[in-house]
Amino acid sequence: MKLYGSLTSPFVRKCRITALEAGVDDRLEFVNTVVMDPKADHPNPLNLVPSFQSDAGELIVDSPLICDYLQSLGNTSGPNDWADRTLVALADGMTDRAVSITLESRRPSHEQSPSWITRWTDAILATITELETRTPATFTPGAIALTCALGYLDFRHANIDWRTGHESLASWYEAQLTRPSVIATEHPR
Which of 27, 95, 99, 111 is deepest in the core (most CB within 10 A)? Predict the structure, then answer.
């Protein structure tokens, strides 16, 4: 099995944590690829990471699907309830906004859209407020997605002060940082 991606991608990190938590990381080969390079070595025709190739050569794209597959291999599929799946969607949506800000800020300054950056930042902060009361008690798929989303904010957007006024969420996140799977997948600095 191969997981294609970048060590700086929060979605790739989510898949790596899931593999570690499911106990299948030893069966997973990680292929570091540069998504912005059209000649990069990855099978996804959309030129997005993560991409996953099963031992049978089956292509799976999109981190929620890859995580579901990895959990099924480890027989550790997380709760299939709507609350946790909603948490995954909110965390992934927040991560999408953060990645959009990252990509927008890499464009030449005269091509950047400050109004979109503000809109995405506001969406992130509104989601943080919503998540303040939704911290999971166990390390579910939603918890993994949320940990990766908050980690990416710290990694790429330290200027977004998500902790102020969200002490419960910040405390929950700090506790997740001690998990071996979270430590093993820290973003390179």
Answer: 95
Which CATH topology does 82-179 take? Glutathione S-transferase Yfyf (Class Pi); Chain A, domain 2 (1.20.1050)
CATH architecture of 2-73: 3-Layer(aba) Sandwich (3.40)
The DSSP annotation for the chain comes to: -EEEE-TT-HHHHHHHHHHHHHT-GGG-EEEE--TT-TTSS---TT--S-EEE-TT--EEESHHHHHHHHHHHTT------HHHHHHHHHHHHHHHHHHHHHHHHHS-GGG--HHHHHHHHHHHHHHHHHHTT---SS--HHHHHHHHHHHHHHHH-TTS--STT-HHHHHHHHHHTTSHHHHHTPPP-
Q: What is the pLDDT of residues 137-174, one digit of tens each?
A: 999 999 999 999 999 999 999 999 999 999 999 999 99
Q: Check whether 78 has a pLDDT greater than 60.
A: no
> What is the value of pTM for the model shown?
0.85
Backbone dihedral angles phi then psi of residue 5, each to the nearest 5 degrees: 170, -170
